[in-house]
Amino acid sequence: MTTRLSQHIRQSINNVSSWRELVNLLIDLDTRTGDYHVPIVSATQADGPPGTVPDVAVDGVLSYLLLDGVAGAKKVYRVFKVPSHYVSGASLHIHWVKSDDTDRSTETVRWLVNHKVFNGSNEDADGGGTTLTLDDTFSDDGTTTRVVHRTANVAIGGVLPSYYIAVSVEKGTPGAGTPMDEPGLVSVDFTFTGYLTRASAPS
Q1: Which of 72, 79, 117, 203 has the fewest C-beta atoms lying within 10 Å of its C-beta?
Q2: pTM as predicted
């Protein structure tokens, strides 16, 4: 994305014939936006109290967190900072996979993502957050395969540039269908619309 944008900037500047056009071009480039997709929780980006953090499993080069046992027995936590080039459209979704060599097609997982947005400067971050419920059904009927699935996006509110978001993730009990006993959490991803030319700006 950065290389294509740089080429576009150079080409646009070469076509500028006046200072007014240059100013308008710079204003346009400074406010141009694009979509971002950032993993915030994964096997290498998670923490929690002893006894609650899931084990890490590895299949080939794919690592994931095992949410085994009863619902809520394992839980992961993460605090991350919203990029300074954030504009709008904050949402979360989960990439996940089965964790054994069994046909798990039609089995369902309910992911519970509790989150709290705070400014990180003078705002109370204690207390309960807002829990998002993400249900998904495994569709691959292979046994040794590890087909990674993705839930739908769920919007989150109150997000501003350079704010913080604390999240916890656990396995819930699906409202219908056969629950998967030990799903693997590949990543929780944060998606948003942000400025393209301000991605490296200081927070």
Answers
A1: 203
A2: 0.81
* Number of other residues whose CB lies within 10 A of the CB of residue 200: 9
Residue 130: how many other CB atoms lie within 10 Å: 12
Whole-number Å distance between alpha carbons of 190 and 113: 12
CB count within 10 Å of CB 55 equals: 13
- Mean pLDDT is lowest, of 40-49, 129-138, 142-151, 164-173, for 40-49
* Sign, CA torsion 61/184/117/37: positive
Tokens of residue 44, six digits: 């290498």
User: Could you give the C-alpha distances from 135 to 32, 34, 36, in angstroms and in order?
Assistant: 34, 28, 23
Name the pairing type of β-strands 107-118 and 178-179.
parallel
What domains, with CATH codes, occur in the chain?
Answer: 1-30 (no CATH), 34-195 (2.60.120)
Give the C-alpha separation, 22 to 5, whole Å. 16
Strand 107-118 and strand 130-137: the pairing is antiparallel
Q: Which of 45, 78, 80, 42 is nearest to 162 (CA)?
A: 80
Strands 56-59 and 130-137 turn out to be unpaired
Helix (H, G, I), strand (E, B) or coil at 3: helix
